[in-house]
Amino acid sequence: MNKNFIVLHIIVVLTLLICSNGSRADSEYYADLSIPLVEEISLNLDKKFDGYHGKIVKQILDQYPDKISFNLTSPKHAYEAFYKGRYSCVTPDSKSYYDLPNDFVDSTALSSVDWVIVQRKGTKPILSKKDLIGLSVGSFYAPEEIASIVPQEGVVYDVIPNHSTILRKVAARRNDIAILPQVGLTKLIAKREELKDLTFEISPKIATVAEAIMCHDTKRGREIIKLVNQGLKAINKKQP
């Protein structure tokens, strides 16, 4: 077979593969903004934007009905798909959660959240991250997703995407403590009899994080950050 023909054939095949992969990547881009269905967004997890963070997100999105696409979805899907580049942005989140190198950029902060230690009444207070070493800890998020809050070594993490189950395992002594955002915990603990022995008032809060709309540092991500920041300025101007 002629060598020139072989070279030409290889070039054509590679070109087709590149085009194929490019169109596949485009088809796997779900939307601009990934929004996990958590209480910060929707108080009753019913897709209403009535959580303290969700109210602000809704005011921003209402200003750009045709400029920012979004999906409300499960927390696991929302964050995993964002990390894989299926979405340009995710909220609530913050670059400050991550210690590892990343390409993330934050908008101006929309809200802030206290992270607390939930434990059984009568147990010793946890006064520093060092006190977590050797414990089994229930968490909604994988430790690498909240690396600035929790130790990455020396702790056994039980990651469960359900707050009630996390708390029940602490109450049943299957985990020592849980580390969670404070949002909704008082209500959740009060309405379940099996959780009555739990409290988050023994230990000081472990962190307070200003949460934003966090995007990949790409052209589209930066465009969305610009729109979000402009939207926040407009909201703040309207407030007395």
From TrEMBL:
Protein name: Solute-binding protein family 3/N-terminal domain-containing protein
Organism (species): Candidatus Terasakiella magnetica
